Amino acid sequence: MEQDTSTKLYTFLIYSENVPGLLSQITAVFTRRQVNIESLNVCASSTPGAHKYTVTAYCDERMARILTSQVEKRIEVLQAHFYTDDELFINETALFKLSTPAMMKNREVSSLVRSYDARIIEVNSTYSVVEITGFTDEIIELFDKLQKLDCVLQFVRSGRICITKSRVEHLDEYLAVREAKRQAKK
Amino acid sequence: MMRALEHEGVDVLFGYPGGSIMPTYDALYDHKKTLNHILVRHEQGAVHAAQGYARVSGKVGCAIVTSGPGATNTVTGIADAMIDSTPMVVICGQVGVAMLGTDAFQEVDVVGITSPVSKWSYQIRRPEDVAWAVARAFYIAKSGRPGPVVLDFAKNAQTGLVEYEPAQVDFIRSYEPEPDVNMTDIERAAKMINNSVKPFVLVGQGVELGNATEELRTLLEKADLPCGTTFLGLSAIPSDHPLNMGILGMHGNLGPNVMTNQCDLLIAIGMRFDDRVTGNLATYAKQAKIIHFDIDRAEFNKNVPVDLKVWGNCKETLAAVTKLVDEAKHTAWIEGFKPYAEKEYEKVIDKALHPTEGPLLMGEVIRKVSEAAENKGIMVTDVGQNQLMACRYFKFTQKRSVVTSGGLGTMGFGLPAAIGATFGAPDRTVCLFVGDGGLQMTIQELGTIMEQGAPVKIILLNNNFLGNVRQWQEMFFAHRYSFTPMLNPDYELIAKGYGIPAKTVIERKDLDAAIAEMLATPGPYLLQCAIKEEDNVLPMTPPGANIDEMLLEL
User: CB-CB: which of A24, A66, A179 is closest to B115?
Assistant: First the structure.
């Protein structure tokens, strides 16, 4: 079996039943194998009752396979898959809280915000709030530039969210197979 | 809870009461006739006893303890059961939900602590959930790859009153314990076996866990496949079966280890390529194609990349493959194991079994006990040299005869596990091999043996050392015996205090009679053997070395 041995950022999409305590079980699978989680997003999925975890981490393909199978082994995990960036539509949101006086003093700040297609969603005399949606790299780039202009009061990134490019919905297929099995058992 | 346990067919519980589990113990008082509760002397003893019970009976072992320290004392046994795939349900008391998170007396985050080392860990917070949680716990513990399940039982859920409705769980949407057999994989496996000239089978505990000993034997005999076993797989095939070439791994037999790196096809069945079996992975069976039969999908390609995965219960997959394999003979290949067996016999085994002078050796004691029990006994071991030697020299003719802490290597496992084994297989002879170190780790369970009259034949291999660590110090740490010599108490006197008959053997000439007396004595017995202090377990593949580079002598 040919495997990519280079270390790269993999995205893990994990679907689980909605039960308490599962997040720590999932993160423990990563930490025990010395893999740091770069970003994490947890929310209800489009499938009723199923939760979706979006986890990114740097590792090689062999480790990505091991992490996926070990996560899937937890009783309440429905499915786990790993992806590279080219298999996904990816997005990330960030919010900046900027000093309004600093913005007023240096016009470069607002032109920078505009040049990155960021939106100003609140302005008052003390601070302004800027929202940007895009890729991690450009968000961090904008942050670095704003930071140099000494105007950032707060900054937060959402962590990656994504959906697959595949035309196959693995979770739906899996649940259909499982439902058939349940019926057969009856 | 009591009715739910009865509904699951529980007949024996190992436990220890305490504050937060008192309502359950009060209910137990009314169910004494159906639920035989064995009071242990420490909660660690309860879980190991449940493990011993489960291993020999094939049923789910059950332990019941209180919250806080009662629960934390079970963690070692839970982790042990997890890595050795032992079905077990541990019920821990917990403070009431109103007190959770307040650092209440004897409150501890049991689910948080046990989740990473258990198959499933669940907090029962409402009385309505008891029947469902128990049914689910037993289903998870025994299905698929078996393992330990923890039920963290809040006190209000113990005292609240609800109408009992039996619950049945045989399906969990997110949990696929046994897939349907994939016939394409079966056909590929059969083809690979039919094309192989030098096949070699690795037999793990999965064969016994899947009740597939007959299926294994049929496959081996039809296709004439030689095999080696892991420690936990020792009794999956009789020791004297002509296709059983011996034990795999660090302290296994020379032939199976050398031939692992010479075969053209490695067929692993219900085993997980533990580092103690494989040695250096970079040189492990690189020349061979590898087929892996396992019920746990996460084991595929975990340590060793394989050419074909056969996912499923080996009872089904082995039977399916057997139908498709050709009857074959691999006489020349199998003959090739012989010179290694002869070499090992001459250099190691003969010396270990037939010494003519000097102090007693572990090997000779173990073999004599095994033979005196007509090779039909259950071998329970502790951990260390006693374990390695017992696995090497005890012989097996019956399945489910091995109770040893393989993966976790838990010293102190042996004595309580042996107690559990006597309840799981009351008609069989339970022989415990234990060192002077491990015995003292759970020696309090002599009290349980006394109270229950549990017929454990304790063979204490006393060398006044923490022997295995001492051996490694001798081999890898320049003979620097850092805290391995040990001053021992008078074990005969201790046994006497517990009313357990005991004898010490020092001279070789007294050994046979002492073993005969031990086996003829009804109930428990402690036979202390004065073992050569610096006896070494050989052969040995040093840690990290190539598996075929075994040392036969130091």
Answer: A24
